[in-house]
Amino acid sequence: SRSYVIDAIPGDGIGVDVTDVAMQCVDAVAGIYGFGVQWRVRDWNSDLYRKAGRMMPVDGIDQLSSGDGIYLGAVGTPDVPDDVTLWGLLIPIRREFDQYINLRPMRLLPGVVGAMPGIGDLDIVVVRENVEGEYSQIGGRFGAGTDGEFAVQESVFTRRGIARAARYAATAATERGGRLVSATKSNGIIHTMPFWDEVVAETVKEFPGVVVEKVLIDALAARLVMKPTSIRTIVASNLFGDILSDLVAGVAGSIGIAPSANLNPERRHPSMFEPVHGSAPDIAGKGIANPVGALWAAAMMLDHLGEAEAARSLTSAFEGTLADGTATPDLKGTATTAEFAAAVLSRLS
Amino acid sequence: SRSYVIDAIPGDGIGVDVTDVAMQCVDAVAGIYGFGVQWRVRDWNSDLYRKAGRMMPVDGIDQLSSGDGIYLGAVGTPDVPDDVTLWGLLIPIRREFDQYINLRPMRLLPGVVGAMPGIGDLDIVVVRENVEGEYSQIGGRFGAGTDGEFAVQESVFTRRGIARAARYAATAATERGGRLVSATKSNGIIHTMPFWDEVVAETVKEFPGVVVEKVLIDALAARLVMKPTSIRTIVASNLFGDILSDLVAGVAGSIGIAPSANLNPERRHPSMFEPVHGSAPDIAGKGIANPVGALWAAAMMLDHLGEAEAARSLTSAFEGTLADGTATPDLKGTATTAEFAAAVLSRLS
Ligand SMILES: CC(C)[C@H](C(=O)O)[C@@H](O)C(=O)O
Ligand SMILES: CC(C)[C@H](C(=O)O)[C@@H](O)C(=O)O
């Protein structure tokens, strides 16, 4: 029978709480649909860093490469600098496995009150370029400690990198009404953005049913607040996609519900699935983290593995639970993480 | 009697409509408060570019330097690349006159329906660093036209540049409850942002009454949608400030109401005042542009000139007009630009 090897990295803070619950729900749905999931749970987190000086073993990437997918909770903790936790784990996984698409869908979920009225049919997919752009390794400081100190960061956009993100986004847009919004900032001084516009426009020409609308990032942020349902599919650079996807999650009611798939679309390497939220040290261990983002990410993973029915079933289960009025405090409910998960499990069985 | 020389650059599109109206209202309020405004109206815009190949004369900056302030409508037109219109006019003015603060206040104005309910006491000031950061001259393309083509853009943050923005913002925060939100992205790979955090933190130490809360730009975008009234004062880099100020205007109901002051706080050079909105070619010439952003920017100019009472009077006049239910279509009203302005003028007299 079908079986998948998944590396689970619960990580830090509420990452642990939501991963725990998500693994249970995935196991339940796997049982129903007749496949197995073999979890390799990794203790790669800030504790390991404190003990061993590394977020993951030297051969961590190698270890992951034999699996069918990676499931991440969240990383980050107040006493370790974020660049250590993220550069030690999250970013290398995204890059070494060429997970060049970060897919971030959002809908107004049943039972959830969005930030503003009249957005019942909110349904947005952000296709974020995930391995280049504003997040490059090139940069640093000059004259540390002096009055003349300065820091630089180089954004790097390649034709290939933009084109493949645009291609993925255009394919997504084809099934989503054909209109693709490209987030840009080509009206000023940022030399990379007219290049972004050009390559997006050229690439989308390959897709007869798709029309690109380029929208300046500042205007787009405002439009997502004023007319969020006027947008279905967005293609954005690494930084812009990061900002926009959190913004859209805010519009839909909570960052706690937002999922994220870091995809290597050609499947040469494992892809990684994670909720958008961070480790949230302020509520870690309180048992009140919203597991919806994690469950939705798990459903995206099942879909990626080819288990579309199981993915739909898991999605219906958490949506049904929300529709029933069961929700964690971030959604103004009173359920704990465990209570929410129990309701999802009982819907599955 | 007191008199000020103001260079008015109506620019393109609706910039012309709103500047026209704003000058009338400023003249009216000046008459009441006993000072004069000598307008030097400049035809520096895309038409000039089409005729003369320049957005402003070779000695444009010199010409402006003798004035007491600059009032700009908007620049940009579909058939001229934005980098031409902006690099030929807006950006050089900001830089040559070292207008290193871009001040962007926003409130929920009377009579205006915000994007979401319960934000009646929305009152946010974005202090945007305005001459460095992500908007640097350094960048370009390599291998144009080849498969290996790439483009780079260098962000440059200096200690001095961050510190003076933080100092201005901390001063503003002192009078606004003491809490200063610093927009950052220091949790990843962007080398400049930990430096931003450090210099902001050090600088704000000089202000005993001010507490800095650093918030990641992605989380901040979501928070501005979910809890906009939890934030009063924001300090942000050039790009982040650009995005956040449009977002906040969207939350408050329309980009058409948002003002912007490009300040040289030491008054060594003239400062520039402009609405945040662009030239909006789609509605240019239709007489329906919202003049509130322009009027609010004019009030900020009066305040900067030392005419605080006149500034307050102009502000009350456009607020009163809105409170009466007079509003342009972007605010779901039916007034034209001229009707709105007439109502403001009749309140002033
Ligand atoms: C026109 C553009 C270059 C400008 C900017 O990004 O600074 C505008 O969006 C603004 O905010 O004034
Ligand atoms: C943690 C951080 C580096 C990361 C990012 O910006 O990519 C996060 O915000 C995300 O969106 O996954």
Description:
Chain A has 349 residues and is α/β, with parallel strands linked by helices. Chain A folds into 2 domains: 1-100 and 263-349, Isopropylmalate Dehydrogenase; 114-252, Isopropylmalate Dehydrogenase (3-Layer(aba) Sandwich). Chain A is 41% helix and 21% strand. Chain A has 11 helices and 12 strands. Chain A has helices spanning 14-33, 46-52, 60-65, 82-96, 159-174, 192-204, 217-226, 238-251, 292-304, 308-323, 337-348, and strands at residues 3-11, 36-41, 69-74, 101-107, 123-129, 139-142, 150-158, 179-184, 211-216, 233-236, 259-263, 272-275. In chain A, the strands form 2 sheets. The first copy, chain A, has a 10-stranded mixed beta sheet, with helices on both faces. The model of chain A has no long low-confidence stretch (mean pLDDT 96). At the A-B interface, helix 4, strand 6, strand 7, helix 6 and helix 7 of A face helix 4, strand 6, strand 7, helix 6 and helix 7 of B. Strand 7 (150-158) of chain A pairs antiparallel with strand 7 (150-158) of chain B, so a sheet runs across the interface. The structure holds 3-isopropylmalic acid (2 copies). One 3-isopropylmalic acid is lined by residues 187-188, 218 of chain A. Chains A, B: Its cofactor is Mn(2+); Mg(2+). Chains A, B: Its EC number is 1.1.1.83.
